[in-house]
Write a structure and sequence with these properties.
By secondary structure, this protein is an all-alpha fold. Helices cover 89% and strands 0% of the residues. The mean pLDDT is 81.
Length: 103
């Protein structure tokens, strides 16, 4: 029984020592280069993704505008957007300056 325990203890200790040494080598020699390579890859993928999203949004807006039935719809939409923006500004100023006094 003592021999079996000695063999198991030696195996576990050897594995732990090997893993510790491998981690130390990785951390001190390879981790910095790995992080730099990973950052470069993330930047590259981010740039590609940004270009694809930008192109997709541009095409979506072009398709959306091209599918408008008439200029009347565009005019009414513009009026609604202006009216909504005006309401938002009035409410924002009202909360800052207080209620509007009517003449």
């Amino acid at each position: 029984m003592t021999t079996l325990f000695s063999i198991l203890f030696t195996a576990v200790f050897s594995a732990a020592l090997t893993l510790g040494a491998a981690w130390w080598v990785f951390k001190n020699y390879f981790l910095e280069d790995f992080e730099k390579a990973l950052d470069e890859k993330v930047e590259e993928v981010g740039a590609k993704l940004e270009a694809r999203v930008r192109e997709g949004v541009r095409l979506g807006v072009i398709d959306g505008v091209a599918q408008l039935p008439t200029t009347e719809v565009l005019n009414k939409t513009t009026e609604n957007v202006v009216r909504t923006g005006q309401t938002l500004v009035e409410q924002g100023l009202g909360s800052i300056l207080g209620p509007r006094k009517k003449p």
